[in-house]
Amino acid sequence: MKNFLARILGKKTPMTNLTIIGNGNMARGIAARGLAGGLTVEILGQDPIKAQELAAELGARVTSGTTAAAPQGDIVVLAVPFDAAKTIVSTYGEALAGKTIVDITNPVNFETFDSLVVEPGTSAAEEIAQLAPSGSHVVKAFNTTFAGTLVAGESGGKPLDVFIAGDDDAATAAVSGLVSAGGMRPLVVGPLKRARELEGFQFVLMTMQANPAFEDFNWDTGLLVTK
């Protein structure tokens, strides 16, 4: 698994396989899965101290920096809220050309917790893709997994299912390889427009997590497709 990314992308393994922008709990969880799969990880954040602290917590194969620096990884994960993700992609511009950009956001209206903030017929991922430079490929993934479960890569003793949507086969294959290497199951559900359903479904799940009527839910559940 160590060189899976190089085989998928058809070139030598880069010094940094994976760049994660953000230094919160989702960044920690995704980094943990990347490290479990043998990748090297770069953490970039607006707060250099927090990024450095997270990198130190995660271990020797992790470097840190600020969002003033261009991301070095071939896969760039936007582990930030939706509005911040749009700003980051717009600001980086051509520095993201040739990258696989992973959008993990759920565009929930957190003031009301009763709707999404994107218009019907679109998604956060599609809006981010419109801002991304030519030659980059946006992939939706990890929006249906919670941060706590990602650290272990499982929920209830079962590996996490990670739903993936994207328009470019090589980019979705790269993200699938990241997921598999981290001990989880990738499920490619179709083109990027399927992000609309993934975001809507996760919104429903989030409202259930926050609902006190579901006493056993504590943001540690996972979606599982079984038969």
Order of strands in the sheet with the most strands? 3-2-1-4-5-6-9-10
Bin the helical content: 25-40%
Coarse shape? globular
Helical segment count: 8
Instruction: Please tell me how large the radius of gyration is.
Output: 16 Å
Please give the number of β-strands.
Answer: 10
Give an overview of the whole structure.
The structure is a single chain. By secondary structure, the chain is of the alpha/beta class. It is built from eight helices and ten strands. The strands form two sheets. Strands 3-2-1-4-5-6-9-10 form an eight-stranded mixed beta sheet, sandwiched between helices. Strands 7-8 form a two-stranded antiparallel ribbon. Helix 4 runs parallel beside helix 5. The longest helix is centred in the C-terminal third of the chain and has 16 residues. The radius of gyration is 16 Å and the shape is globular. The N terminus is likely disordered.
Summarize the structure.
By secondary structure, this protein is α/β, with parallel strands linked by helices. The protein has eight helices and ten strands. The strands form two sheets. Strands 3-2-1-4-5-6-9-10 form an eight-stranded mixed β-sheet, with helices on both faces. Strands 7-8 form a two-stranded antiparallel sheet.
List keywords for this structure.
227 residues, 8 helices, globular, disordered N terminus, NAD(P)-binding domain-containing protein, NAD(P)-bd_dom_sf, P5C_Rdtase_cat_N
